[in-house]
Predict the 3D structure of the following.
Amino acid sequence: MTKTRCFVTTFLKATLRTLRKKVLVGCLLTLIFGAAVLHHWISNTSSVVNVQQRLDSSMEKLRHSGAQHLDNVSYNLKQATARNGCVCEGEKRGVNMPFADLLFPVVSAEDLKLAFEASKLQGVQERRKAEFQNFRKRAQSAADVLIVAEANSPLQYPTQGVEVRPKTSIVIPGLGLKHKSRSLYLVILSASMGTFSISNVVDKVQVTGNGQMQMNISSRLLPALNRQLGFIMYTNTIFHPNTADIVHYSTDGFQAAFTVKIRHEVPPKLYDPGPGDEYNISALVTIATKTFLRYDKLQDLIESIRQFYPTISIIIADDSEHPKPVTGPYIEHYIMPFRKGWFAGRNLAISQVTTKYVLWADDDFIFTDKTRLEKMVKILESTTLDLVGGAVREVTGYTATYRHTISTEDGGEEGDCLHMRQGFHHVIEGFPNCVVADAVINFFMARTEKIRQVGFDPRLARVGHLEFFVDGLGTMHVGSCDDVIVSHASKIKGMLPFGQSKTDQAYSKFRYPAPSNLQNSLFYFKNHFKCKTSNS
Amino acid sequence: MTKTRCFVTTFLKATLRTLRKKVLVGCLLTLIFGAAVLHHWISNTSSVVNVQQRLDSSMEKLRHSGAQHLDNVSYNLKQATARNGCVCEGEKRGVNMPFADLLFPVVSAEDLKLAFEASKLQGVQERRKAEFQNFRKRAQSAADVLIVAEANSPLQYPTQGVEVRPKTSIVIPGLGLKHKSRSLYLVILSASMGTFSISNVVDKVQVTGNGQMQMNISSRLLPALNRQLGFIMYTNTIFHPNTADIVHYSTDGFQAAFTVKIRHEVPPKLYDPGPGDEYNISALVTIATKTFLRYDKLQDLIESIRQFYPTISIIIADDSEHPKPVTGPYIEHYIMPFRKGWFAGRNLAISQVTTKYVLWADDDFIFTDKTRLEKMVKILESTTLDLVGGAVREVTGYTATYRHTISTEDGGEEGDCLHMRQGFHHVIEGFPNCVVADAVINFFMARTEKIRQVGFDPRLARVGHLEFFVDGLGTMHVGSCDDVIVSHASKIKGMLPFGQSKTDQAYSKFRYPAPSNLQNSLFYFKNHFKCKTSNS
């Protein structure tokens, strides 16, 4: 501003000296023009928008028009299911035969609100309901609303697949009108988050609202109208990084609606596997573990890894009270506050990985010649799996894969039901030792980007395992191969009082405290479940 | 197996003793029956599936049928744009007027592949192409394919909004047939990832393929057929945690297709804000920071925070060479390997947060009475924003919000173009000091679950800022409020050689090394961009 004033003063002095009226007028006009440009520029970039309001009214309009199509069929499926809702009960044993317990483990059910003290429950429920409603409002999108295509409609239009990056334009594909003979053909397009325009003008077609949120296109000649409909551009004008607009398309007596997704293209997060034909395990995989007081076991793990993978990086999260140094090539040791916790340590470890894959190992595992990480890399490279578990072999020879399936069932306003069952979905073609499941044992390799997207909730301080897989539902494609085996350092000895070393004893004291309601309280509040059933 | 054998032996002995033929026969039948049940059970749960193959062929079929609807319009929009593709060039200054540099900063363009040595580039490009193709294959879904609704079709069907949880069933809403008079009405439904069945039987309607992947429904009475079409159930039989099936719906001379989304319901990750009417900042917010050698500045930050928020948790990630203890109530200090890095430290800090929101602050910030975190909480609680930046005030009084918009432009097989511009999208209604943008300054509050979903890539060891926001495109809704101000500890003094303290000098030595190509090489490989343009 100071510079501008100085400029003006100098100019005025010069003009007074020469008394050139033309120059004075020219200067004034320049200033007025500049101010107008500036004002226009500022006001354009300072438009005030309530995006949520627009989206809400757009979806409301759609729900009303959608309801007309559906006579005698309840169109709000979620409401229908909610009225029925899932019931929180275990299963009775169907077949009473020998070895039923082995073949058909009993399903138990837990009412999750019982994790809270009765006196606090009401407050918890009120806050839970408020948080959930806020979450749902943020998560909803016009792209999920039910739309039904009318029969015998002369309108042709795209029902899926139309996407635009924010504040950009696309030609809408597939628009058409296939009316019978009429004297005048007219279609109307309208939207809430963008405008329509013509990318090519076609003769004998009249367009009103070019560049507006509603555009009318008419012509006496149907072929001309259809040709024009091939050049309709939609431009998103109201910014949102990830939403959908609903386009209403209508002609006399008929209506249609379709979604235009408005979204920033999500950039991929790729990793360079490095040159070479073979899998370079050290370039592709980092081993992550968490330790607490068990430095002896940790050293055994590291030494066993080094026999097979001498240069693989090992990340160690450590929340021991008096941390000891853990050093060596390709070892990264992270010190945490004392007892920060199990999932906090897991989340820390994975947060530091710079390779495409991360292998989770507990600090009391031992690598053997059966611990072939190449097999895990192979299945992750060749399928859509995001995480593949292996098998953990106890001293007794018993080998576990801990395969589970998890499903959720709509339970209405009170929350859904969470079902966890031993087992898996199906075998993976081409990998006869591998299956698809929803949860696996605590020895697995995962895509770093995916496992970080899900994360290990640091609120789980002492115990937790399936919670990670519950958080991963709908995000991670989980598998399990029983031919990649790691050994578990002896647990039997450690479980006998006289068999425990001093560190084992200290570990047990912290690791196995009195049971708490923390896990169920998180399922109830955090994940909004009302019930958990399980047969393991 | 051992128990079964023992059981059989005992039984056989008993029968031999009594020579009851009936019992012997009964036993044999039980065994055969049991084996049959067991075999059936095992084979059902061990079905071998190549899910990807099914999805691929389903989408292929759709592309062929979709192509028929579109005469004269190129239906593969992405291909069309790719042929044109974005061009990597800066902008010339449009208006040549005084103060143009201030008002219209010049846009520069960078060809990102130049970040690599010429000798290594070819290998990089080959691996980049392979990784990107794999990524695209994993990311594609039938729900994104272009589908066009035929005009004048007697078929009525849902075009959007049909979803089913894996391995469960739903009644398909909105199916109908509105033919003219015919002697026989017939419709065919087919799918790839599930089967159809009748939930209620309607008289005078013939159904074949009940429980199969293709079902034919016919009747001489149109009202009866339509009534039956209200009771068609789709059951997902081939498990996938997040995909879509395409249902083909046809009658004589007409075809339609629509998507059924198959997805585990993604559980919410809610936080209990705790009782009370006011915002309990300590219960809702954790402050996260990273420090390196600047313990004096860090202490200043902590003391300034404590003046206003005495019980708020502060998480400190520290990768100094000789870490000093940082202690105090509600302080969590994490020790990292020396020089692990800037984004690694940021990712570590946010990985430990157990509150709904996290506030990022640099270790050389100072809280003042203008640093009202309540304002940030308010906007995050009331809008769909996931992250809101504040303003950083230098000693000079200059206050920066560093607002940027980011957009990407399709660039074809070589990669997209990344455009970063100073500025914002629009003002937020109800919050006159706040705007929507795509990137903000390094002082912000964010939803913990969202910021962890994006993450800070630990591959960015020394410098990085906008990379986080680029990774967040399409995921985070970003805002900026200029009325929440934090002060920046003096930088001017620190920039003069004689004004630096010893720690400042050590810090500068590590923090500002010779420029590297790391950032551009990551934009090129990791995010698959070919060009970056910027005007800041």
Observations:
- The first strand of chain B starts at residue 48 and ends at 49.
- Chain B touches chain A through 143 residues (CB under 8 Å).
- The CA atoms of residues 359 and 445 of chain B lie 4 Å apart.
